[in-house]
Amino acid sequence: MAKMIEISAAEYERLQDCIREDGMRIAALIEENKALHQDARRLPAVDAAPMTHAKWLLRHVGHGHYWECSHCHQNPCIYVTEDTKFCPNCGAKMDGEEKNE
Question: What is the pTM of this model?
Fold first, then answer.
């Protein structure tokens, strides 16, 4: 059977004070969380643009070549490869699809 520990009245009061302080901290955090939630609900909605899908087109010029976006038809830069996931010029997602949402 479990044994009870003996504590003095002063120790008992100190424990009770700690419990009350913790309870007050928890209550304050709950109120702060409610206030943050209310602030977040007042923020404007995001004005997001629909996702544009495209693919990289390999273009040849003279003895060289470059990648061109099938959506904006721009050559973004020399650092673009066929593995680049988004067009740095127009933001199109390079997943090989030509559909636009």
Answer: 0.48
